[in-house]
Amino acid sequence: MKNLILFFVLLLAGCSQQNENAQDIAFQVEMPASPPKVPSENGVKPASANDAAIPRKLIREGELAFETTNPENTRKQITTAAAANEAYIATDQQTKSYDRINYVMLVRIPAARFDSFINAATKGISHFDKKEIRVRDVTAEYIDSEARLKTKKDIENRYKQLLAKASSVADILAIEKELGAIRTEIEATEGQLKLLKDQVQYATLQIEFYTVSGGSSSFMQELGISFSEGWDNLRAFSLTMISIWPFLLIVPFLWFIFSRVRNRKVKQRSPEEV
C-alpha cells in the first residue's frame, strides 16, 4: 500500500514539472527577443524616419557693413541683385554727417536665394566692417502653432454645434461668449503662424554702406555743429523748466509759509526772554 501511494506522488510531481516546462516554453515563444540596439556614434541618437520627413523651418537673418568709394554704383548693384533674385527693398535710408554719408537698406530675399543674393550684392567687396549671418530653427514652434490652431478650430466647431442645439437664452449667451474667446485665440495663433511663415519664406538682410569725405572737418564746421547742439540743449532745458512750472510756484510759497511761522515763533519767545 505504501509503495502504491509513493508511486502516485511521484507521478503527480512529474506531471507538474512537465506543465511548468511547457509554460516556460510557451512564454519564450510568445515573447520574442527584442531587436539589438544600434550603436550610436559619439553618443548621438540616430535620427528616425519621422524626424527626417519633417521639413525644417529656418529663419535666416544677416547684417553687412562696409565702406564704398562710389555709393551710387553700390546701391545700383544691390537693387540689380534684388531684382535678379526676386527680392525687394523693404526700407532705404540715408543719413549724412559732416564727414560721412551712411546708407542703410533692408532687403527681404526668398530663403532659397539668400546666398545667391549676398554674392551678387557684395561682388567686388573685399573687406567687411561687419558680416553676420544667423539661422534660427523654428520647426518646433511652427508645428506647435499648427497643432494649437487645429485644436482651437475643433473646439470652435463644437461650440457652433452646441449653439445650433441651444434652446434657452442663457445657454446661447454663454456659448457665444465662449465662441468669442476661442475666436480671439484662433486669430492670435493664425497671426503668429502667418508671421513665422513670412520669416521662413523670406530672409532678412540689413546692408549698411558708407562713404567718407576726402578732407577733415574744418573749424567752422565743428563750430556750427557745437552751436546747433548747444541750441538743442537750451531748448530742451527751457521745455523742461516750463513743464515743471507748478513745482516752481510751490517752492516759494512753502518757503514763505515757513518764514512766517519761524518769525512768529521768534516773536513769541522774545517777551519771555525779556
Word description of this protein:
Among the domains are: 53-138 and 202-212, Alpha-Beta Plaits, CATH 3.30.70; 139-199. It contains 8 helices and 5 strands, in the order ααβαββαβααβαα. Helix 3 (71-84) packs antiparallel against helix 4 (114-121). A 5-stranded mixed β-sheet has the order 2-3-5-1-4. Strand 2 (88-96) and strand 3 form a beta hairpin. The model is unreliable at 1-13 and 15-49 (pLDDT under 50). By secondary structure, it is of the alpha+beta class. The protein starts with a helix and ends with a helix.
> What share of the residues lie within helices?
55-70%
- Tell me the overall shape: flat
The tally of helices reads: 8
| Helix and strand sequence | HHEHEEHEHHEHH
- Broad structural category: alpha+beta
Instruction: Please mark out the parts with pLDDT under 50 across 5 or more consecutive residues, or reply none.
Output: 1-13, 15-49
Could you tell me how far the N terminus lies from the C terminus, measured between alpha carbons in angstroms? 143 Å
